[in-house]
Amino acid sequence: MSSKPREWKLEPASFVVVANRLPVDRVENPDGGAEWRPSPGGLVTAFEPIMHRRHGAWVGWQGAAASQELEPFEHAGLALVPVPLSSSEVEEYYEGFSNATLWPLYHDAIAPPQFRREWWDTYVIVNQRFADRVAEVAAEGAVVWIQDYHLQLVPQMLRRQRPDVRIGFFLHIPFPPTELYVQLPWRQQILEGLLGADIVGFQLPGGARNFVRLVRDRLGLETLRDRIRTRDGRDVLARAYPISIDAKGLHELAAGDQAAERAAEIRNDLGDPRVLFLGVDRLDYTKGIPERIQAFGELLAEGRIDPDHVVFLQLAIPSRQRVEQYRQLRDDIDRLVGRINGEVQRIGRPPIIYLHVSYPRVEIAAFYRAADVMVVTPLRDGMNLVAKEYVACRQRDDGALVLSEFTGAARELRQAYLVNPHDIDGLKDRMVEAMNDSSRNKAQRMRAMRRQVLENDIDKWASMFLDDLERLNGTPAAREAAG
Ligand code: ADP
Ligand code: F6P
Question: Is the CB of 320 under 6 A from ligand 2?
Answer without folding.
Answer: yes
